[in-house]
């Protein structure tokens, strides 16, 4: 399938980062989100969530006994997300076995389209540099085609986030998100709406990227519109998967797994998921005060109650010992997820490891800054200084030189990576 580059030529001048109206003239497509309905159980307790491990899942399908009163099978968010991860890993294995990644900017056989596509990717690079300078610098070591693809993905994710977080957020409705999803489907079919979509359309044509995590990110934005409290970590986990774990799943097929890696594709996806979730939890812990101003509390209510904290304590924003103890536990959980993610970074293709290490180390440092602020995340924003960011880049570079371990003590579910 070729990408229809002509369809955005007319809107080329609209190089604005996010189109304000979200194109109300385009018909709604009434999309129905399908949830993966596979069931499984696992054998070990997950250190971060307290629920069962992502390690040894056994498909259950017909054997799982627990059922909700509505007749729905009970499944934790972690299990649901794990299903998506398995599906993505299987998909990438299948697709990579069938197709080869074609390097270079290859556009449809339309006169002038090659230069338009180049321009579209270049614009994605500019946006990425503008919004995430350190990360952008990290991408410069990637191969040109991977780098361009990551920029295009970054821009789509940033635009999606801007819908609910940007200047027009108050006007965003579920219908607008449905339109955004319809546009996503169009670009996956090779009919991008604008230039930035065209870059992504080209990327998803070249790399084995599935639409599901993109749709899930939009689902996260829907969730954000209707929900401002999270009963427990399971609920928060699902939100974090939607808005950030998805980024990990989307990025891996582009960044690639090292040919010499002995890890299973699934374990690399799990690490990517862990990094997205760790980043989002860190983001949440950094922004407690800001979010409270918007009437939002992205913290597990049951854990707050256990710590003797009420919503009022959050809205008053007083740093007490109860708050410090609660925060210590939340920070510990985020760090455990970062640890889990670290194991996967070395399995990535050599040229992709630097930006991932850079982003991991910098995001992780925000947790140190929260501690350095004596857990005052109500009125002080934990912030990694420019100097620290600057130092992190060579540190990340040195780390990125270490490739996959040459031996594995245990290699369950060992599978071949056809990408190699
Ligand atoms: C190399 C690398 C880091 C690639 C990812 C690049 C990419 C596509 C980033 C998109 C990020 C984005 C705009 C997501 C939209 C939702 C969102 C804003 C999530 C928050 C990001 C931080 O943004 P910021 O600090 O600007 O937040 P505010 O909006 O200002 O509040 C998140 C916290 C999540 C971002 C999640 C990731 C970057 C996931 C990274 C995981 C991988 C790249 C997988 C790595 C692979 C292994 C095996 C570990
Ligand atoms: Mn945001």
Automatic annotation (TrEMBL):
It comes from the Eukaryota. It comes from Hibiscus trionum (Flower of an hour). Pathway: Carotenoid biosynthesis; phytoene biosynthesis; all-trans-phytoene from geranylgeranyl diphosphate: step 1/1. The keyword Phosphoprotein does not apply. Its EC number is 2.5.1.32. InterPro entries: Isoprenoid_synthase_dom_sf (IPR008949), Squ/phyt_synthse (IPR002060), Squalene/phytoene_synthase_CS (IPR019845), Trans_IPPS_bact-type (IPR044843), Trans_IPPS_HH (IPR033904). Keywords: Carotenoid biosynthesis, Isoprene biosynthesis, Membrane, Transferase, Transmembrane, Transmembrane helix. The lineage of its organism: Eukaryota, Viridiplantae, Streptophyta, Embryophyta, Tracheophyta. The keyword Membrane applies. It catalyses: 2 (2E,6E,10E)-geranylgeranyl diphosphate = 15-cis-phytoene + 2 diphosphate. This is 15-cis-phytoene synthase. Pfam families: SQS_PSY. GO terms for cellular component: plastid. Belongs to the phytoene/squalene synthase family. GO terms for biological process: carotenoid biosynthetic process. GO terms for molecular function: 15-cis-phytoene synthase activity; geranylgeranyl diphosphate synthase activity; squalene synthase [NAD(P)H] activity. SUPFAM superfamilies: Terpenoid synthases.
